[in-house]
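Technical annex, item 7. During the second reporting period the consortium partners agreed on a shared format for inverse folding records so that results from different sites could be compared directly. Each record opens with the tokenized structure and is followed by the designed sequence. A conforming record, contributed by the partner at site C, is shown below for reference.
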């Protein structure tokens, strides 16, 4: 659901938004900039979803095993 918000910005910022971002893209632009600062990600849920992806986990395991072999051959 989207909500309408009225904000006040400096005239130069307003003109810059119109010229750089474009009139019909300002809301999306501001939303993408503000989102990470006001919505905290649910990392536990994200990690659970990643762990449930069996093909991703298999690929990660294959990568780890391949690089571990490289490390044991390095000289110190």
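Designed sequence (site C submission):
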């Amino acid at each position: 659901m989207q909500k309408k918000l009225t904000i006040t910005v400096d005239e130069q910022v307003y003109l810059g938004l119109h010229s750089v971002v474009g009139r019909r893209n300002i809301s999306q632009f501001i939303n993408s900039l503000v989102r990470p600062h006001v919505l905290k990600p649910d990392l536990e849920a994200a990690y659970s979803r990643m762990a449930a992806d069996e093909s991703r986990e298999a690929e990660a395991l294959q990568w780890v095993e391949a690089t571990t072999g490289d490390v044991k051959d390095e000289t110190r």
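The radius of gyration is 23 Å. The chain has two domains: 1-39, 43-72. All partners now use this format for quarterly exchanges.
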